[in-house]
Amino acid sequence: KNLKPMVDAITATKPDVVYFGGQYDLGAPLVKALREAGSNTVFMGADSLDGSDFIKLAGDAAKGVYYTATVAPPASYSGAKAFRDTFKRRYSSEVTGFGILGYDAMQVALKALRDAIELNDGKRPSRIQVESALRKVRAPGLLTGDIRFNSAGDRIDSTIFILKIGDDLTSRVAGVVKAGAEKK
Fold first, then answer.
1. What residues have CB less than 8 Å from 41, skipping those under 6 apart?
2. Over 80: is that where the pLDDT of 181 sits?
3. Could you give the CA distance from residue 173 to residue 69 in angstroms, rounded to a whole number?
4. What tens digit of pLDDT does each residue of 11-55 get?
5. Over the chain, what is the mean pLDDT?
6. The whole model's pTM is what?
7. 7, 21, 72, 119: which has the fewest Cβ within 10 Å?
8. DSSP string for the chain
9. Can you tell me the distance from the alpha carbon of 130 to that of 78, in angstroms, rounded to the nearest whole number?
């Protein structure tokens, strides 16, 4: 609760970056205290900083904060415009990046189920057959890109987004890191 010793130590060392590995409810007061102490060091964290609660707690101190996430703001997915428009018409609200990712996840699951049924001569497949089919799914051209898995079931060609909270307190993609499992 007492951030002063930590803030004093950070401001004394003048680091290039402070990486915060905790939750938004602790990160917001920390970045706010750093800014109030005159520190302009880059503040960065993980996806727990992605959200309106962090911004509400941090206020203007959230401006310029970076964080990493496995999903980007919806407008970052150029191939998802029609989906975003349809979602807004149907549900009278904006889709989130996680909504787009969830849609793609369902497409992968349905493809695995169809493939398992086909491999089982049109009959209801077992759970193991569906799991096996899921590991073999190749789903090109989805809203978030191509999805495929290695033999262990880990996604190949994942993306980690580096997002930055702008002066208008909205997040934008500041960088992209390609990641993912090996093709074992």
1. 10, 14, 15, 16, 17, 18, 34
2. no
3. 10
4. 999 999 999 999 999 999 999 999 999 999 999 999 999 888 999
5. 93
6. 0.81
7. 21
8. ---HHHHHHHHHH--SEEEE-S-HHHHHHHHHHHHHTT---EEEE-GGG-SHHHHHHHGGGGTT-EEEESS--GGG-GGGHHHHHHHHHHHSSPPPHHHHHHHHHHHHHHHHHHHHHHHTTTSPPPHHHHHHHHHT-EEEEETTEEEEE-TTSPEESEEEEEEEE-TTS-EEEEEEEEE-----
9. 31
Q: Which two tokens stand for residue 170?
A: 């909205």
pLDDT tens-digit map of 155-172: 888 889 999 999 999 999
Q: What is the pLDDT of residues 64-86, one digit of tens each?
A: 999 999 999 998 888 899 999 99
